[in-house]
């Protein structure tokens, strides 16, 4: 006879599949829900495009911040007997038309070029972001007035507008100082570029203010400033950050364009754009004068564009 007090293994031991399911459920309960930025960072670390672009950008930022780690040569020291000499063991990148070490000038030039891009991007995003979030949140006549005003700047060609602004600023100055020229170039880029970031922020603010949590905050009597800072702004930063990352590379290229035209940075400032401008009369006779600064410029712009693409894909739920 079967002992009624005896328990079988089936009754006391759960099935392996059930145990694994319970463990998975417990882990899911213990895991904290990830936000947009943490989820994006988790996704970015798995993207080779992001890792490659980030590595290049980190190296370039180190070069710009600490050029003395890479060269101790004076970039303005001239030796006309070495003018336009090709790369060698003594000078890795050769010499320019005045006998200056091209490697030292390329390393030192990274600081001015990247500085212009960083500051111009920061100023553009701040100016356009503040105006755009105000226009998108309040709407009505405020939005209409700001939108029509921004269209004036968007209809102005960038190069033509920069020529007019920079030429006017330097009309009565024979040789402007380096700091003055950098400030002028940064301000010009920001003035001509802010409408793009304004439109991006405006669109994001219009979408954010329609959300239930924003309507609830307004219904509870929160002031517009509090609603914007606590609820609207955090949910509108993603598209602006993507634009800023891509625009930074574009602004570095814009500095080189303006310097090549003779209205941007100029001597005694050392930048990649200035070096490219100085090499235009010697491209056939000494192509290395153009190759090295242009190569660094292209690599920098491409790295920021790649980084922006990776950030955009990570922050866009449709790309998941």
Automatic annotation (TrEMBL):
Keywords assigned by UniProt, alphabetized: Cell membrane, Membrane, Transmembrane, Transmembrane helix, Transport
TM ranges: 49-70, 114-140, 152-171, 177-196, 240-265, 285-311
PROSITE patterns to which the protein is assigned, alphabetical: ABC_TM1
UniProt GO BP: transmembrane transport
Ranges annotated as biased composition (Basic and acidic residues): 19-32
Polar residues: compositionally biased ranges: 1-11
Domain ABC transmembrane type-1: 110-308
Membrane topology: Multi-pass membrane protein
Claim: Cytoplasm is one of the keywords in the record: no
Taxonomy, superkingdom: Bacteria
UniProt region (Disordered), positions on chain: 1-32
Location within or outside the cell: Cell membrane
GO cellular component: plasma membrane
CDD domains in UniProt: TM_PBP2 (cd06261)
Annotated Pfam families: BPD_transp_1, OppC_N
Main localization category: membrane
Family: Belongs to the binding-protein-dependent transport system permease family.
Protein name according to UniProt: ABC transporter permease
Organism taxonomic ancestry: Bacteria, Bacillati, Actinomycetota, Actinomycetes, Pseudonocardiales
